[in-house]
Design goal:
The chain is of the alpha/beta class. The protein is built from 19 helices and eleven strands. The strands form two sheets. It has a nine-stranded mixed β-sheet. It has a two-stranded antiparallel ribbon with strand order 9-10.
Length: about 525
């Protein structure tokens, strides 16, 4: 699969040309989405035909019903007009002949733009969502045609349409990660590393109910929730997705990402600032998973907002605005996981310390996790995860602290670290053992404090620590394994090795100076 994704990325990357990164991203992801729509349409078309033939319907009735748009929409499949279907685009990927149906010569970009317009015209829920930028001068039409050809390869189709759609979903996610890496800091606006998202998902276990992300980016939280359900043999249709996103292009990506993964989500009719207008004002959520932008200084602040139950957030930082908005959305029994900058755990600036104290005293914080560095390519700021629960059961009045900063993970490259499956499972298992969830019972997990890694603290202890929530303050330092060498001997040995290193350094410096002196300038 990795080889396939790499092949598509290399082919897509040839389109870059004179396009800026954001336009290039829209072109490539839009094309992947169009392929998904066509595959899903043909899968449903085949199902309808097979069902009617099995029931003995006559050919005229079959043709009438396979062209009935309601037969598709009833199954959550978008209607794709004939000249928007992939086989039509492939047929004319090198340009439409001038005499085709009395129409003039057309580049593939014009055909793709038309296909997007026709699909949006036939499906009101996609109105204003799809990109129509394929016929611009910056898009290399020859390479675009080659990419359309490549996406049509038999390898890409897999074993049946459903398999092809799964592959398309993986390609879409892979491309999102590549674009985030390519855009650096700006890539963090729409992309949260999957390993970080999985920490939230595996801890919260969103098996059913309303799942919400108030800063949903490209929809990665929802996709990982769906994958969690599939891994556990649960039905993805048991969750109902709600989201909101401020950036127009990112909102479009999220809509397409959900569709590619077969998820029906309510992301609103347009992009919207969560602080200006909550587009799901009367909906309480069972799960909230979010990675809101850190430390926003310029945000739409209103001092009389009903969401600021625990105190008005400062004008120069929105971190506690995000936290309080999320708490305001939780249903009774609801839980949340929020990625935040480490500074949020201990800051006292602008009244943030008082807000944190109020939230802790309300017994809403269930767990704090400090994560390793370099998980985010887009920022060097160390991050943590706040977990909230409206009902902690037997753990009322307590908070679990997990210091995972020393988890090595694996280095994707010199700049980015990824958590391993085992590390993610370790964090989740400790939480479930601590809380006594059904998962812990099923796995026969029991909780105990581990020096240097995890510890339970009471609200009284946290109050005595000035309401700071930094895990390192509570878990202590791990015991250092005794290697059996007496301390005085170790100091003498290390001192000797250091002096030997100094001597070798001096020898090498002298040799280099001698060589430089022999060079004629």
């Amino acid at each position: 699969m990795k080889e396939l994704k790499d092949t598509f990325w290399k082919a897509a990357d040839k389109l870059r040309g004179s396009m800026d990164a954001s336009q290039y991203k829209d072109v490539v992801l839009g094309l992947v989405f169009l392929k998904y729509l066509s595959d899903a349409f043909h899968e449903r078309r085949g199902q309808i035909r097979a069902e009617l033939e099995a029931d003995g319907h006559d050919p005229d009735t079959i043709e009438e019903l396979v062209n009935d748009q309601h037969e598709y929409r009833a199954k959550g499949v978008f209607w794709v007009p004939e000249d928007s279907r992939w086989e039509y685009l492939v047929r004319y990927a090198k340009g439409r002949p001038a005499d085709h149906a009395g129409l003039g010569q057309a580049d593939i970009g014009e055909l793709v733009d038309d296909a997007m317009e026709h699909i949006m015209g036939s499906n009101p829920s996609l109105k204003g969502t799809l990109p129509t930028i394929f016929n611009q001068p910056s898009v290399d039409q020859r390479r675009l045609g080659q990419l359309v050809d490549l996406f049509n390869s038999t390898r890409f189709r897999g074993d049946g349409a459903r398999k092809a759609r799964d592959v398309l979903g993986e390609v879409y996610e892979y491309f999102l990660g590549k674009f985030a890496a390519a855009e650096g800091k700006r890539g963090g606006e729409f992309y949260t590393p999957p390993g970080v998202v999985r920490v939230l998902v595996e801890v919260l276990e969103p098996y059913k109910g309303r799942v919400y992300d108030p800063a949903c980016g490209s929809g990665g939280m929802f996709v990982q929730a769906e994958k969690f359900l599939e891994r556990h043999g649960a039905n993805p249709q048991d969750i109902h997705v709600y989201g909101q996103e401020l950036n127009e292009r990112t909102w479009r990506m999220a809509k397409m990402n959900l569709a590619v993964h077969g998820l029906t989500g309510n992301l609103g009719s347009k992009w919207e600032d969560t602080f200006v207008r909550d587009i799901h004002p009367d909906t309480k959520m069972d799960y909230v998973m979010a990675n809101p932008p850190f430390n926003i200084k310029d945000w739409a602040r209103s001092t009389d907002d009903a969401r600021w139950k625990y105190g008005v957030p400062p004008a120069n930082n929105a971190n506690y605005a995000w936290i309080q908005h999320i708490l305001s959305k939780l249903a009774p029994g609801g839980s949340a996981g929020v990625v935040m900058a480490n500074g949020s755990m201990s800051t006292n600036s602008g009244g943030e310390g008082d807000i944190r104290a109020q939230i802790i005293e309300a017994d809403l914080v269930s767990c704090m996790v400090a994560l390793p560095t370099q998980l985010f390519r887009s920022t060097g700021i160390p991050v943590c995860v706040w977990f909230f629960a409206k009902d902690k059961g037997a753990r009322a009045g307590e908070v679990l602290f997990i210091d995972a900063r020393n988890m090595p993970g694996v280095m994707v490259d010199r700049a980015e670290r990824a958590l391993t499956d085992e590390e993610i499972a370790k964090v989740a298992d400790i939480y479930h053992a601590w809380l006594g969830t059904p998962s812990a019972t099923e796995k026969d997990l029991t909780y105990e404090d581990t020096l240097g890694f995890c510890r339970t603290a009471t609200l009284a202890e946290i109050k005595d620590s000035g309401y700071a929530l930094t895990p390192g303050r509570y878990v202590g330092a791990a015991d250092v394994e005794d290697d059996g060498e007496p301390l005085n001997d170790k100091i003498a040995r290390l001192t000797k090795e250091l002096y030997e290193a100094f001597d070798e350094s001096n020898r090498l410096e002298a040799a280099v100076r001698e060589q430089l002196g022999s060079i004629d300038v």
